[in-house]
Fold this sequence. Notes:
Layout: E1 53-54, E2 61-67, E3 75-81, E4 86-92, H1 108-114, E5 117-122, E6 128-135, E7 144-148, E8 151-166, E9 169-181, E10 187-189, E11 196-198, E12 205-212, E13 217-223, E14 229-235, H2 236-240, E15 249-252, H3 264-267, E16 272-278, E17 281-286, E18 293-296, E19 299-302, E20 312-317, E21 338-339, E22 350-357, E23 368-375, E24 382-388, E25 391-392
Parallel strand pairs: 6-10
Antiparallel strand pairs: 1-25, 2-24, 3-4, 4-5, 5-6, 7-8, 8-9, 9-11, 12-13, 13-14, 14-15, 16-17, 17-20, 18-19, 20-21, 22-23, 23-24
Keywords: Signal
Protein name: Teichoic acid biosynthesis protein C
Signal peptide: 1-37
Amino acid sequence: MSHDNSKHTSRRSLLAWGGAGALTAATVSLGSGTASAAAYPASGSALLVPSARLDLNSPAENWIREKATRDTTIIQAIGYDNVNRHIYLTQVTQGGLQLSGESAPVSAADRNKNGDLTVTKWDMAGNTLGYMYLRGFGHGASIGVEPVGSKAYLWTEVDSVTIEDKPGEFSSRGTRLARFPFVSGQVLNKTSSALTKYTPVPGSTRNGVSIDPVYGRLVVRYRDTDNVTKYQVHDLDLARLNNWTKPLAAISEPSLTAIPGWPITTYGKPFHQGFASVGRYLYMLHGNSYGSTQTINGQTVVISQTGQGNTFLSCLDLATGDFAPAAPSPWVNSVNPCHTKAAYTLEYREPEGLAVYVPDIDQPGVFSLGMGFASGASGARRASIYGKSVLIQP
């Protein structure tokens, strides 16, 4: 089932090119134009305005089920162009391909080590419309999509460095961010003049990025020099101008396993698989593929049981950095973080990517959250998107 909307012909941007746009009664306008440094709000103050948040405990909806991407590897992230009604997905480029400028086919291990990525462009039903190849960028664990008229500019990690995930197995993570237009069929190197590069936090590693399409913000996830994973929220207009001196919020990423009563022998330490933000709240996706094991208390434990999984959605309050209190909800056992069995019938099933979807761009304050899932056998992976749409008003 696709999740398009009949008003997709409108091209009024959700973002604050010339104004923040009218939000629902539950939210407020953030003003117009590019903010000046002198008038910029104190850190966190603009996040204190009332904003709706997703009901994590509401039922999941099947939006797109097991569609092909350009390559056959596992997807890593998803992002919506809510204006032009497209979806962008990242994945590590598959092994065995020989791209332009390459003297021979490149193995999967080297693609991982080099940080080579594939971006697939879907329509809202999951049909492939185009693709790009990015060489030397990173792992593709997040993507920001910025619509500009009828085009989309993508924000990704770039300038990757190789890391050893486990003995003998390598991947790559970006040390900076890049912004560039999506051009179908293009092979883009990390040194290309088509890129605009940014260094939000000098010395940081594992940079990731997401865009809040409702409030016109950019969120950076990174690891600092003390090896602590953090988030910063910036005005998108200022970020585009390479002004990172006035973050709206700056928080450290809390661990799910630090929550009192966390059943670690059941769910282990789920991998971080994506993040997205709207207004005052930041959402995280965690989980592992079916059958994944971890060593807990000296024993090998299956932490993601088939049909059950260990996929969790959680909601952080950007004003405090804490997990937001579980809000009133009609659903039984309202909790945050919330375990989800969305897409539980998939073969393999690994959560991969989180993104904000706005069904009607004339009502940008009414949003949903899309969760990406990888499935299928190795060498023939497919991508699915399930969503949650029930909002809790402040």
